[in-house]
């Protein structure tokens, strides 16, 4: 009986080096919210963008080649990347979700804060590194402190630099980098913890 082998090209992940894989954390999940999906596509390099166009876009090779020539002639490559992000987000979610994701991305690029984000209640008395970890914004307290040292952490829109900071009781918007947000209610230090988390609605920012 004849045997047939179908060979398919591998899709490189967000890093542009390794194949896309959940275990390597360089992937976009098809169940991810539209805002996250859109932003992740825009995070890839200009070189990788053309590889993704070839493997993921429904545009013809002729149309892709024309777009590539326009970029080579001076057109902003971000235009092409936005078009790819919109195409992928529309295919998985909807055109309306892609519109909202683009608006959210542009708002964040201007320093805005998204309306939808994870909401948590956490016990007080924690240092800022531990608080960022508990909020799911960094993988470890030490990484949180490193982000503070690099100027990549904001509290209510204001960059912080004090690695020994302990927020008093109250509600704050914590931000790490440009895309990670959480609204955190810090309980009084002597109050027993009662963590709560409101699930993200479909299409909300991650």
Protein model, in words:
The chain is α+β, with helices and mostly antiparallel strands. 38% of the residues lie in helices and 12% in strands. It has seven helices and six strands. It has a six-stranded mixed beta sheet. A hairpin with a 2-residue loop joins β2 and β3. The longest helix has 16 residues, at 77-92. The chain is elongated, with a radius of gyration of 20 Å. Residues 202-206 have low confidence and may be disordered.
Write the layout of secondary structure elements.
Layout: H1 34-42, H2 46-56, H3 61-72, H4 77-92, H5 95-109, E1 119-122, H6 128-134, H7 141-149, E2 153-155, E3 158-159, E4 170-176, E5 180-186, E6 197-198
Helix pairs in contact: 1-4, 1-5, 2-4, 4-5, 6-7
